[in-house]
Amino acid sequence: MKKESLWKLIALSSVPFIMVLGNSMLIPVLPDMQKAMEITKLQAGLSITLFSLPAGIAIPVMGFLADKYGRKPIILPALLLYATGGVLSGLAAWWWQSYPILLAGRIIQGLGASGTGPIAMALVSDIFTSQERPKALGGLEAANGLGKVISPILGAAIALLIWYALFFVYAFLAVPAAVLIWLLIKEPPPEKGNQSVRAYLGKIKEIFQRKGKSLAGCYAAGSAVLLILFGLLSYLSDVLEKSYGLDGIVKGLALAVPVLAMSSTSFFGGRYLERQLGKIKYFIVLGLILVAGPLGAFALFPGDMVFFAGILLLGLGTGLVLPGVNTLVTSSVPLEERGGITALYGGVRFLGVAAGPPVFDFLLSLSKRTMFAGGALLAALALGLALWLVNEQQLLQNLQQGKSSGAGKPSRLSPEPT
Questions:
Q1: What is d(CA 165, CA 93) in angstroms, rounded to the nearest whole number?
Q2: Minimal CA–CA distance to 208: which of 219, 198, 216?
Q3: Cα within 13 Å of Cα(274), Cβ side
Q4: How far apart are CA 361 and CA 341, in angstroms?
Q5: CB 3.0–4.6 Å: which of 153, 173, 354, 388 could bond 53 by disulfide?
């Protein structure tokens, strides 16, 4: 890859890296936030939910606007909005000591996040040649994985200074990324005569009429495993501090273990599936079994040692599900129709992340067994839907046609790095 292309890739790779930090870096400091702001655990979890919920709703809108007006006119303001929300949340905690204002900042951050990661992936596809594109998309995936692994460690390390400092770190990272993209990225002009909102929605409706069942099974699997993972990470953060007295970097390292298992399995599993497309559904089914099984064991044997062993398996299972689902979704439609479907998928994933902490906190308020049993039932439901609804041959039809005509492979990168 040429030096100029490498700098472009570095600029674009900073975007999914920063977006991943949006939730994962905050999880280790939730107990500190709870004590400092004098709020309940459920209220602290809203700082995750009110970031992910607006992002999930806005991602399809941002995808349409990026197709219509260009990627840079969306991604640059989105990064600045992300930074602004971080500063507002930081000031709310430090200066005003107002949790409602902190949550307002998180909503603004979430809206900014909706115009970053998925659009960066589209921008890579726009500006890199067919020879450079697989390597460039791999670079975005590596940045995504790196962000997932180091975010709990980074959050815990920053909290050693003071817990709300991480909100200012969001701005510290997002503003330079926006400057790099503004200076280095020259995107091709958007096509003239772009489709109207009505035509855009009409195409999505037509796709769902043809492949809706299979896509619904994929969407359910992707959102369910992320809901469970982020719900359990929120619970784990609390357990490590209250039951074991772990704090700081040690706590961050412990939280990084299931995320590292997920990221590494997702990366290597995705590389394997590139050569073995016929095994995608097996990966998804096996992954959901590895998610449901430990949760069922937690419900029957709710000791902490069982939990610590099982959450590693759960991370591996999540890592098996995501690359297969990502490939099926991005391969399900031709390139010119891919934006709407992947944007919807990214939105559904964000909604899963948003629901995780409050759903698990509510179930925990009933009992620990109820929380684990509820998670196991959700994973089992996603497993049943995947077995019943997902038709991998139907979803891979466009990819097989693309290969026969010499088209490039779809990205394994998640439309939404969470």
A1: 9
A2: 216
A3: 13
A4: 31
A5: 354
Q: Is 164 helix (H, G, I), strand (E, B) or coil?
A: coil
Most confident of 67-71, 223-227, 243-247, 338-342: 223-227
Q: Which of 78, 84, 91, 82 is nearest to 109 (CA)?
A: 82
**Per-residue pLDDT tens digits for 237-248:** 988 888 888 888
Rounded Cα distance between 64 and 196, Å, is 9
Supply angle C-alpha 319, 324, 327, rounded to 5: 130
Do 187 and 126 contact (CB within 8 A), yes or no? yes
Kindly indicate the confidence band of residue 145, based on its pLDDT and cuts at 50, 70 and 90. Answer: confident
- How far is Cα 275 from Cα 404, in angstroms, rounded to an integer? 15
CATH number for the segment(s) 1-194:
1.20.1250.20
Angle (CA) 227 230 233, round 5°? 145
The answer to whether domain 1-194 and domain 196-411 are alike in fold is yes
Report the run of H or E that residue 199 belongs to, with start and end. helix 197-242
pLDDT category of residue 194 using cuts at 50, 70 and 90: low
Contact predicate 418/353, CB 8 Å: yes
pLDDT digits (tens, 9 = 90+) for 97-139: 999 999 999 999 999 999 987 788 778 777 876 566 656 766 7
Window from 22-36, 53-67, 138-152 with minimum mean pLDDT = 138-152
Q: Where are the alpha helices (DSSP H) in 29-187?
A: 30-37, 41-69, 72-91, 99-113, 117-127, 133-161, 165-184
- Alpha helices, DSSP H only, in 276-408? 280-300, 304-331, 338-366, 368-389, 392-395, 397-404
Q: Where are the domains of the chain?
A: 1-194, 196-411
Question: What are residue 367's phi and psi, to 5 degrees?
Answer: 180, 160
Give the 3-state secondary structure of residue 131. coil
